Amino acid sequence: MGASIISSGYSRDNIQADEVLIAIDAKGRFSKVHLLAEYTPKPLRRFSIVGGLAYFFSSRITATITSVDDHYFAKMPVTKEELGMVAGTANWSGIAPYIGFSVGSPVPKKRFGVTFDVGTYYMSRPEVVVDATNLLEPNKLNQKPLYENLKGYRWLPQVQLNFTYKLISKKILQPLASTI
Fold it and tell me: Which of 70, 126, 148, 154 lies 20 to 30 Å from 89 when distance is taken between CA atoms?
């Protein structure tokens, strides 16, 4: 059982887009709790197959694009406020199955151990929302094409370094096993 949170952001001004300078502000946050189980075939003591489920309560990417300067369209001045903004959000929240492989001993010989996992979650299709204001409002029509472009992005690869702790020693388990 475990949990993870990863946040990232990107902000940049003065990006040249055709004849317009724009600013982009993008953020991403993935938060989940997961329950994973490992199966270790006896001849391969250090290698395991890992499976499980996670609940992603926040798996959202947002981006907002605005104009940096005022512009002239057909020799008519248009302020950046009149031009407006475009914002998009994609959200993959919900339950996701996990499959992966692990190297290391899931149950340590001593008290502490380390495993290294590589795998992937299979996410739900994203919910996509596009919002726009003022002269850029027709960009709301891009919501469906954006969804069509993102609906295939369902695999979320993971690389994990796990630290394990053995709660019960063999000395405690041996008397229990002999009474069964």
Answer: 70
Strand ranges in the chain using DSSP code E only, listed in sequence order? 2-17, 20-39, 47-67, 71-73, 76-78, 85-91, 94-104, 112-122, 127-132, 155-165
Please, are residues 2 and 32 in contact by the beta-carbon 8 Å criterion?
Answer: no
* pLDDT tens digits, one per residue of 40-53: 888 777 888 999 99
Q: Which domain holds residue 95?
A: 2-179
What CATH number should be reported for the domain holding residue 77? Answer: 2.40.160
For the whole model, what pTM was predicted? 0.74
- Bridge-based pairing of strands 112-122 and 71-73 is unpaired
Number of domains in the chain: 1
